[in-house]
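Structure (tokenized):
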């Protein structure tokens, strides 16, 4: 079975820290490695940051733009240059590429999610390496991936990747930010995300000068990806040849073990395409019924409703302590749920004045976290 790899490279690896200009040797090596893996039959998606960083360098700007409009304008300058460099390099090795610019809203509507999925499948079948970035120039704040770590995890879920590589400017995850803590200990393997808490890993919230999310967004991305059945590796972008070694089983970087993959495409969309607009807090009985017995959520198990949402929107299901249990598509408006929470199903018609759906979230529309 051919393996699918999603490789995400951050601005900090694509550019030279001193002047923000492109790190050509790194890009060239990455292009060689990806082309060679492609030749050997791997299906490859490259998620590349750098539009804003490269745009700034092109325009002689010395710091990241602060206003949204300026950032969007700068990204439009940088994205073109970035893809041109990639196309020149990949073309030298006879590897066709495609530019895919996504916004978060492309994944929310089921039609457009399926459409994006089909486009990726087609590109991969054609032997093309899609080069993905957020469409920064048109993305609006409320509907943004916000960072390419998250984007790459959602793409890895979408293309059912086997591996997600997050290439950055540190060689792996440490117990604390190695830039500020000389005692930070390297971490090689995470078999369950909860281990990060047990190991008391401290995540510095600032990234490098041009990067966006620092390590926080990489951990969030790893969590999404492993939940979608994708083995995830955080490793140094300056040594792209390590990708081949990791695929051969060498313990380089920090590797996150995947969980079993959600079975259906629809469930993957519910889990990672939709954006939850509200939260339902559940009592212990409901948590058990959903988690252990694969049951639907009934109104009686809801203790609190947070947010405003329409019927058929996505909601988070949490236990009383706030721990996320599942995500799903809700059958009631939030104002209806405020009235029927905690009630037995046969009381719903009397309370609302009309018979509602039997379940608040049907098990077919529910994905465990
Ligand atoms: N626990 C940690 N382990 C490793 N790096 C960390 C940790 N906490 C914070 N960091 C920082 O995260 C940075 C990488 O994030 P960022 O600059 O956003 O990279 P990229 O541009 O590749 O997305 C590292 O340079 C490092 O200083
Ligand atoms: N879409 C933005 C990148 C956002 C981002 O996540 O950057 P980084 O932290 O360097 O991976 C750009 O191309 O500049």
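Design, position by position:
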């Amino acid at each position: 079975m051919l393996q699918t790899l999603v490789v995400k490279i951050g601005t900090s690896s694509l550019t030279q820290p001193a002047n923000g200009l492109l790190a050509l040797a790194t890009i060239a090596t990455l292009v060689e490695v990806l082309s060679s893996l492609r030749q050997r039959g791997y299906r490859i998606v490259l998620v590349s940051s750098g539009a804003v960083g490269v745009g700034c360098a092109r325009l002689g700007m010395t710091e990241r733009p602060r206003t949204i409009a300026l950032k969007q304008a700068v990204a439009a300058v940088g994205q073109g240059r970035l893809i041109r460099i990639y196309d020149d390099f990949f073309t030298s090795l006879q590897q066709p590429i495609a530019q895919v610019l996504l916004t978060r809203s492309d994944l929310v509507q089921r039609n457009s999610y399926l459409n994006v999925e089909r486009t990726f499948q087609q590109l991969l079948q054609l032997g093309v390496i899609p080069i993905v970035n957020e469409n920064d120039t048109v993305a609006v704040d409320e509907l943004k991936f916000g960072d390419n770590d998250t984007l790459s995890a959602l793409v890895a879920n979408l293309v059912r990747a086997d591996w997600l590589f997050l290439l950055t400017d540190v060689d792996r995850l440490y117990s604390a930010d190695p830039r500020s803590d000389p005692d930070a200990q390297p971490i090689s393997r995470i078999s369950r995300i909860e281990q990060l808490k047990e190991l008391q890993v401290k995540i510095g919230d600032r990234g490098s000068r041009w990067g966006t999310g620092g390590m926080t967004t990489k951990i969030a991305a790893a969590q999404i990806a492993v939940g979608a059945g994708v083995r995830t590796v955080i490793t140094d972008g300056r040594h792209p040849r390590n990708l081949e070694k990791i695929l051969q089983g060498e313990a380089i970087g920090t590797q996150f073990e995947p969980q079993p993959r959600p079975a259906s495409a629809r469930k993957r969309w519910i889990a990672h395409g939709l954006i939850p607009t509200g939260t339902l807090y559940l009592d212990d009985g409901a948590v058990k019924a959903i988690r252990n017995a694969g049951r639907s959520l009934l109104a009686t198990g809801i203790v609190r409703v947070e947010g405003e949402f329409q019927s058929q929107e996505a909601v988070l299901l949490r236990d009383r302590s706030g721990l996320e249990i599942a995500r799903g598509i809700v059958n009631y408006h939030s104002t209806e749920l405020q009235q029927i929470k905690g009630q037995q199903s046969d009381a719903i018609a009397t309370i609302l004045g009309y018979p509602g759906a039997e379940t608040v979230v049907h098990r077919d529309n529910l994905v465990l976290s």
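Reviewer-requested clarification: The longest helix spans residues 68-92. The chain has a mean pLDDT of 92.
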